[in-house]
Amino acid sequence: MKIVIIGGTGLIGSKLVSKLREHGHQAVAASPDTGVNTLTGQGLPEALAGADVVVDVSNSPSFEDTAVLKFFETSTGNLLAAEAAAGVGHHVALSVVGTERLSESGYFRAKIAQENLIRKSSIPYSIVHATQFFEFIKSIADAATVGTTVRLAPVLIQPMAADDVAKAVGRVSVGSPINGTVEVAGPQQFRLDELVRDGLRARNDPREVVRDPEARYFGAKLAERTLLPGDGASIAETRFEAWLDQTLVPTRT
Ligand SMILES: NC(=O)c1ccc[n+]([C@@H]2O[C@H](COP(=O)([O-])OP(=O)(O)OC[C@H]3O[C@@H](n4cnc5c(N)ncnc54)[C@H](OP(=O)(O)O)[C@@H]3O)[C@@H](O)[C@H]2O)c1
Question: Across all residues in the chain, what is the average pLDDT?
Answer without folding.
Answer: 96
